[in-house]
Amino acid sequence: MPQISLSTNRATALKPAISYNSSLHIKQLDAVRGCAILLVLLYHFYGEYAGVFNIGWTGVDLFFVLSGFLITGILTDSKQQASYFKNFYIKRVLRIFPIYFIVIGIILYLVPLFSSTAIPDLPYYHNHQGWFWTYFQNWLFTIKGFPDDRVLRYTWSLCIEEQFYMFWPFIIYKFSAKNILRISIGFIVLANVLRLLPLPVDNNYIYVNTFARIDALSVGALIAILIRTRKELLEKYATMIMLVSVIALLGNIAYTRSTFFMNLYPVYTFIALFFGGLIVWSLSSNAPRPLQLIVNNPVFMFFGKYSYGLYLYHVPIHLWLTPWLFKIVQSYIHPALWNKLLISSAGLLVAIAVSVISFRFIETPFLNLKKKLIVKRK
């Protein structure tokens, strides 16, 4: 009898016991968002100095999975309410638009007033600025490829999420949960097919095109629907899916001898599935101790809270501030690698400070407008 009990306990420990209330703010998901932005920050600030941080490029995929999960959940829970579309789009506009347009305006029009060399590809950005103002620059990159200047290249991921917000509410509103599951699976298949087809466009489309990357958002959507309709399936298979994904990812790392394997396109879905499992386990009451230390950690929650501003501000700060600081201190600190690490850390601290200030004085006032504009539940 004790042996049976022990076996049962071990089996139970390998399965997440999901505890999720969609009407509550889940702080653990703030920590997951914090993990996503930290991956991105480590990649951009330190990836060129320490190869292990190149794995940070996957942080964008974690953002996608988390967005698919949260947005699908929000829409599913509110589809019977009055002003379903109005409320959703008001929230998205107030959260996303203000600092995005501020950053675009500063880069395209304010910075050139002070430096004619800060943006080498300024004519490119001016000539194609319509794509950036409308969140369609990822399609520009699909057609023409990336510009050499990186100052606005990273915004492609914001386009994918914004375009997802444009059509996904209509799918949630129109279809049943069962059909949404089918549509999500269809999008996962579509993304993998598109990444394998030799289309007559720039090779970057595989990385930046909406429908070539929609599998990660769809994985999040699948989890959101299943957690409301077939929670037992998630609890039964989440661990197995994560293990298979880890094996696939480790295989790719071994094959490429690098954590920078973004050119191995079939692996994208495995990345999304791994992060999907991570989200499921983060909502579990019996999550492993190491994961609990992460998802309940105030540091990760802090980064999650300011993640949107950090994402928008960190690349221009890194590109412009860190080289300037490096010139100042390079004759005082040796060796050169420590120079770079120190300056990158200084740039990161500046990005954090700017994001905190932005959240307090720009983002929060806009977010407070929701109280006046959102139609209350009836």
TrEMBL record:
List, in alphabetical order, the Gene Ontology terms for molecular function in this entry.
acyltransferase activity, transferring groups other than amino-acyl groups; hydrolase activity
Which residue numbers delimit the Acyltransferase domain? Answer: 27-358
Q: Which residues cross the membrane?
A: 52-75, 96-115, 180-199, 205-225, 237-255, 267-287, 299-321, 341-362
Lineage: superkingdom: Bacteria
Keyword Ribosomal protein on this protein? no
Cross-referenced PANTHER family: ACETYLTRANSFERASE (PTHR23028), ACYL_TRANSF_3 DOMAIN-CONTAINING PROTEIN (PTHR23028:SF53)
From the Swiss-Prot or TrEMBL record, give the protein name: Peptidoglycan/LPS O-acetylase OafA/YrhL, contains acyltransferase and SGNH-hydrolase domains
Origin species = Chitinophaga terrae (ex Kim and Jung 2007)
